[in-house]
Amino acid sequence: MIVPDTLDGAILLSVIDFTLSIVMISGIGVILALFPLLNRLGKVDEEAIRQGHH
Amino acid sequence: MFEQLVSFAKALEQQTGLAQFWWGNVVMIAVGIAMIYLAVKKGYEPLLLVGIGFSCIISNVPGSDLILPGGLFNYAYQGVALLIIPPLIFFGVGAMTDFGPMIANPKLVILGAAAHLGIFVALIGAKALGFTLNEAGAIGIIGGADGPMAIFVTMKLAPHLLPQVSVAAYSYMALMPLIQPPVMRLLTTRQERLIVMKQSRKVSRLERIAFPIVIGVLVNLFFPPVAPLITMLMLGNLFREVLVTDRLAKTAANDVMNVIIIILTVAIGSTMAADKFLTIKTIEIVVLGLVAFLFGTASGVVGAKVMNLFLKDKINPLLGSAGIASVPIAARVSHIVALQENKENYLIYHAMGPNLAGVFGTAISGGIMLALLGVK
Fold this sequence. Notes:
Structural class of chain B: mainly alpha
Radius of gyration of chain B: 22 Å
Number of helices of chain A: 2
Largest sheet of chain A: none
Largest sheet of chain B: none
Helix content of chain B: over 70%
Oligomer: heterodimer
Order of helices and strands of chain B: HHHHHHHHHHHHHHHHHHHH
Number of helices of chain B: 20
Strand content of chain A: under 5%
Helix content of chain A: 55-70%
Number of domains of chain B: 1
Radius of gyration of chain A: 22 Å
Strand content of chain B: under 5%
Largest interface: A-B, 40 and 50 residues
Number of strands of chain B: 0
Shape of chain A: elongated
Structural class of chain A: mainly alpha
């Protein structure tokens, strides 16, 4: 166990975990913000896929 | 002749479960019946509560071999213990979920983490009450309001707490329409609740197909401890979005999901034997779970209000409480509370963004927790 099994350890774990969670999920948000750039690569023809012409 | 009959009856009693019957079994059978009642009469999570309630009743009938090694309920439990069932639930959830609202409005994703303060309040509270840090972590994750994730993390950290944690998590998820609105109203003004969100952009098929692949890679790269859950969520979603595997997506979302729910509910109910469940710890866990839900709701709303300090286009702070992972219950609660103020303010699509992000928020919190506690 990296964090000590004490109340201080619980507080430390919580602070690190909550902070990192915010950072990580913000990172996912940044990546999602870049998603519209994918549309420059081209377009998926949904009708053709649905009809089996892919 | 009479003495022979008495001794025969006594021998028969010893062969049955009657001799082991105690008041705890009666209480737990009543709990099982109450669950079925709530499901049938009140409509609370019937898909879960009927199975859990029934197997809880059967597990508290002394002499039943079903929960012993080799028994059918025990095999169902092994599916949970070996961490096979929770990822398969996520597989089905992925196949039935449209992640479009989350992709369309990335700034709301942060609410998926903000609404998880409850996890840590419950964790610290549990530690203060004398639980070990591993047990406290399992109790805290109730605040994520994500049943499969709560089960997954609990099985890794404190498997002996599975019945209490899973029952608390699913019960509070069912009760969210009662738990969340008072906190949401307390922390927002009417003006804030009336904020109408701008229409989101349309998400292309290419983005929808890329999403599960990108997230699958990221999660396996950064959060291996919880990767099985999110990977299966993304596989189910990929089946849904590529449009060429409709049959598989439908099977995952319906048939597989239904079978897994049956196995899961039987497994959870089978762990609710009176001697393990009727303890002071159970009451403590149930109270801590409620605290986690209350703080999670509050921190989500406050998080949205903090975001508004920096945003030009203000967001409705009711979206914050949707950051709790319970999909789609938390989003629906935000929608309903907004509708009560303005009958034309439809928040549901916008609320689904933070709600879905909450699934990732819980997974990330759980993954970091497992890593910090040295559990693989």
